[in-house]
Write a structure and sequence with these properties.
The protein is an alpha/beta fold. It folds into 2 domains: 244 residues, 3-Layer(aba) Sandwich (Rossmann fold), CATH 3.40.50.10260; 275 residues, UDP-N-acetylmuramoyl-L-alanine:D-glutamate ligase, CATH 3.40.1190. It is built from 21 helices and 22 strands. It has a 12-stranded mixed β-sheet, sandwiched between helices. α12 links the parallel β13 and β14. 53% of the residues are buried.
Length: 542
């Protein structure tokens, strides 16, 4: 995603994290900016003019074959009409099609319609006889199509005529530039409202919208370019958007280079409670993720029979054999004193990979939540033990990070994976704010929700990560960063970005198919090295 800036306008970032807005937040900032003295038609004029500059930059050759502009009756259509006027002024061939009657345009969109006609511009109404066929023919011969049908205010599905327009645009072979959001896309959830435009490029105004960054909206949006139309800084401060997009700069800044006089005690000690007979691999991947994440020390505590395979693979890892029940976790009041002693000298704990979901494991989960004096990451089977008993989190002693995939999240929320995926931001935020926990909802564009309701979106990662053990490694990495002193939300954000970036590097060299968690773990150190090198290379000189 790229963008432009205007001097004196509201900032685009918060501590290196790009602001991301909901449709309501964007409307609030627009409205407040207008109240503070910038007319709406000025914002619209800037939006359309800047979108034309992006169009000319990206599609210079195609532009010679002409542009078809489709305008709805709302503000999105007004933006598109500004584009048509600026393109015509630059002597481009422009054909404008209206999705509504010209008399239906109101407000600032009406002002732009009048400016278009006064400048000699003409338009055809799609609803008239042969209008849809004329649109199809024009789009077929055009070099670029501009989608200004609907913007962020769309609610519900498209009507029959709008669906036909969207289908006609998608059938064209010309690249499509979507104005603000592709028409038919839910700007808050990133799902198509029945039908949606498949854009080549989306030029979005002021700040990226949630739906452009989460799947499947990210695919529908194509490349996303943000243009700064001059939102008043006071409007940003008053609305205070609650979403962020993680960037390399923010993550590298959270993980500064090591001090010259640092030692293993400087970088924390992670306690990993994981594994059982047949599930030693999950425990090993989690512990290796903690070590490769930079923790000075890591101890794996597991049922004694599960530790044999681990010792042969990672001699740097310390182990603590525990009592077992048929190779799995044993837990009773007699075990509590020893488990409490395990916390001594540690900085953070990770629980869950490979522990199973037996009644004993469930009892251990409840006890750990109420007893752990350390920041605690709960992953995998730990989450499945928590399902149906999420109220246990109300009794936690220390910060907790939950790392569910969509299926685990559905069990925690007593819903379905489909419901979770239809509103990933809302699902993660609801769990985080209700139970005062950091929630890492894994998947394409992992989202990290903090207890205060602020949600970060992670842009790194690829489909090759859909393989066993990736989540175990991520849980260990989060635990490692907690042990090194990062705050829970910051540790979760940095770990998710770093983990995905390492996977992207491996996939770039070797392809996505066959990508293993061990590949990603081994790539963590060089990935961080390069992230930090980029940060300092971009830093201003003294």
């Amino acid at each position: 995603m790229s963008g432009t800036e205007r001097a004196g306008a509201a900032p685009l970032e918060d501590r290196g994290r790009l602001y991301v807005v909901s449709s309501d937040e964007m409307r609030g900032m627009d409205r407040r900016t207008i109240e503070l003295g910038t007319p709406g038609e000025v914002l619209m004029e800037r939006a359309g003019a800047l979108a034309v500059e992006v169009l000319r930059e990206r599609f210079a050759t195609a532009l010679r074959r002409g542009v078809v502009v489709v305008a709805g009756k709302g503000n999105n259509g007004g933006d598109a009409l500004v584009m048509a006027r600026h393109l015509r002024r630059r002597r481009a061939k422009v054909e404008v099609f209206l999705a509504a009657g010209a008399d239906e345009f109101g407000g600032d969109a009406r002002t732009q319609w009048l400016r278009w006609t006064r400048a000699g511009g003409r338009a055809r109404e799609i609803g008239g006889a042969g209008g849809l066929a004329a649109l199809a023919a024009a789009a077929g011969r055009a070099g670029v199509v501009v989608d200004g049908l609907f913007g962020t205010g769309l609610r519900g599905g498209l009507d029959e005529r709008s669906r036909a327009i969207v289908a006609t645009l998608n059938a064209s072979s010309a690249p499509i530039l979507a104005v603000d959001v592709p028409s038919g896309l839910d700007a808050d959830r990133g799902v198509a409202l029945g039908d949606a435009v498949q854009a080549t490029l989306t030029v979005t105004f002021a700040y990226p919208k949630i739906g452009l960054l989460v799947h499947p909206g990210a695919e529908l949006a194509g490349e996303v370019v943000v243009v700064d139309i001059g939102i008043d800084p006071r409007a940003l401060a008053e609305v205070a958007p609650r979403q962020r997009l993680l960037t390399p700069r923010a993550v590298a800044a959270a993980l500064p280079p090591r001090a010259p006089d640092g030692h293993k005690g400087s970088y924390g000690h992670v306690l990993v409670l994981a594994g059982a007979v047949g599930k030693s691999g999950a425990a090993l991947l989690c512990a290796r993720g903690a070590l490769r994440g930079g923790a000075g020390l890591a101890t794996l505590a597991a049922p004694a029979p599960a530790l044999g395979p681990v010792l042969a693979h990672t001699p740097e890892l310390m182990t603590e054999p525990l009592a077992d029940h048929d190779g799995g976790w044993a837990f009773s009041s007699d075990d509590q004193p020893r488990l409490l002693r395990l916390f001594d000298g540690k900085s953070a704990a990770v629980f869950g990979p490979g522990v199973g979901t037996s009644p004993l494991a469930r009892a251990l989960t409840e006890w750990l939540i109420g007893a752990s004096p350390l920041p605690l990451v709960i992953d995998a089977d730990g989450l499945n033990c928590l399902a149906g008993q999420v109220g246990w989190l109300k009794h936690k002693r220390c910060p907790i990070v939950l790392t569910p995939h969509p299926g685990e999240m559905a069990r925690l929320l007593a819903g379905s994976p489909g419901e979770v995926q239809a509103d990933r931001i809302g699902s993660a935020r609801r769990l985080a704010t209700t139970y005062d926990a950091v929630v890492v909802l894994k998947g394409a564009r992992t989202v990290i929700a903090a207890p205060d309701g602020v949600v970060s979106i992670n842009p790194t990662g690829n489909p090759g990560m859909a393989s066993g053990g990736m989540g175990d490694a991520l849980a260990g990495l989060i635990g490692s960063l907690l042990a090194q002193g990062l705050a829970p939300a910051e540790a979760a954000e940095a770990a998710a970005f770093w983990h995905g970036a390492a996977a992207d590097r491996v996939a770039a060299r070797r392809g996505q198919a066959g990508l293993l968690a061990t590949d990603v773990i081994e790539e963590l150190p060089p990935t961080l090295r390069d992230l930090q090198a980029r940060l300092f290379a971009d830093a201003p000189g003294d």
